[in-house]
Amino acid sequence: MASNALQSEVTKPPSSNRFSLLPKIINGGIAGIIGVTIVFPLDLVKTRLQNQKPGPDGSFMYRSMLDAFRKTYAAEGYFGMYRGSAVNILLITPEKAIKLAANDQFRHWLATPGKPLTLIREMLAGAGAGLFQIVVTTPMELLKIQMQDAGRVAAQAKLEGKTVPKVSATSLARELVASKGLLGLYRGVGATGMRDVTFSIIYFPMFARLNALGPRKKDGSGDAVFWCSFVSGCVAGSSAALAVNPIDVIKTRLQAIKKSDAELEYKGVVDCFTKTLRNEGPLAFFRGGACRMIVIAPLFGIAQTVYYLGVAERIMGVKK
């Protein structure tokens, strides 16, 4: 009996009064802005670790996460750690709103009245959320990664006695649209979709089950206490992040458009996978994995906590 009660709590669909779109957008925006501001330097380091290639002597520019932090700060200063953050902060609001709201909506559609949501249907709901979000995520990731990686390319060029002109997200976007049309902003969409759909398939069911194990609020809502949602988001986020890190490495390399002359070009997901495996071995697919886990854990912990706290509902006076 207790087991059935727990299963029902874990898999029950969200009630219909949770589908007010505006509060979800506001909650996702607040969560995204706070989360990105906190973890962006880690994300920048993760991108540079994943995208660096061995030099002629086989050595890497960055030996570790701490070494990448130290060298980036020394070369670019404090604000250099936030290179590309404006694009991410601008687009994180719709991205988080789509991911969280779409998962709830798909769970609602896939639920059978009077029956708990099965694991397969939870995974399908997560897949739907991941698929929908790539409309916003792909351009955001493309511009963010190029801006983040610009410092690494400039530093490498400086060591070789060359100079690389500075780029901005606006100039990059204009160049892509002018040369390749609107689809230029969707370079790497296949790898982004693979990563985000797989991530959501793992993340949302795991979060739902972990979140259901914690103590409930005493207000009669049945929601978990805030720290439980935060911890559940951190654990589920970091676990899913590590699982999809090989796909994230491929996506990062495909989207790093402007490379130094010595770096490889990739024609697609399969070509990138093959060349990376042949030239750098299987461990290359887990490069930056620790950074990615550290980035994703607080980002999703914050997102889920804000989402379930109902900050927007409190501000707007809407019943949660």
Structure description:
Helix content is 72%, strand content 0%. The longest helix has 41 residues, at 119-159. Helix 2 (21-51) packs across helix 5, helix 2 runs antiparallel to helix 11 and helix 7 runs antiparallel to helix 8 (226-243). It is globular, with a radius of gyration of 21 Å. With 320 residues, it is mainly alpha-helical.
Main sheet, how many strands, which sense, barrel? none
Following the backbone from N to C, one meets helices and strands in this order, namely HHHHHHHHHHHH
Low-confidence runs of at least 5 consecutive residues: 1-18
* Overall outline: globular
What is the overall number of helices?
12
Number of strands: 0
Span from first to last CA? 29 Å
- Structural classification: mainly alpha
Please tell me how large the radius of gyration is.
21 Å
User: Helical percent range?
Assistant: over 70%
Mean pLDDT, all residues: 82
Jot down its keywords.
mitochondrion, about 325 residues, symport, Mitochondrial glutamate carrier 2, mainly alpha, disordered N terminus, MCP_transmembrane
